[in-house]
Amino acid sequence: MTKKRGRKPSILVNDIKEKLNEVWQGRDDADTWPLFIDDIVSGVARLDWYGEREQQVPLSTKAIIKCFLCLDIISTQSVSQLLNLGERMARKYSAACRISYPFLKRSLERTDVIGCKYRRMSIVSVEHGKALGHHKQNKAMI
Fold first, then answer.
1. Residue 73 clears pLDDT 50, i.e. is over it
2. Residue 9 and residue 38: Cα distance in Å, rounded?
3. CA-closest candidate to residue 98, choices 73, 121, 126, 77
């Protein structure tokens, strides 16, 4: 029997999938996101994922949320298949899910947090975001 060398794949068991689906399906409007989900996922998506690059394009918040809503086990391979991404990009999304997981889990346990909602597009409209230059540096806001 040969030993496999190298790092073992990082796997996250998504035990918040059912609870998150309940919260997600309970939305009144397609433009209304639960406040705690948007705050957590947007913050993680805007981390410096690319190192010393001039243009920092954040990860997609919708893609991160899709991973939590659709996958039972979050790994590089499952994220790659779900989002149709290459291995390097899937690794970044898998890491983003691992970072946001404990915060989402803690927030889902509190009923006062789940009730907080706002209109996502009211924060920065597309026109206002372009006027401020967010379309160049922070595409996740628009």
1. yes
2. 28
3. 73
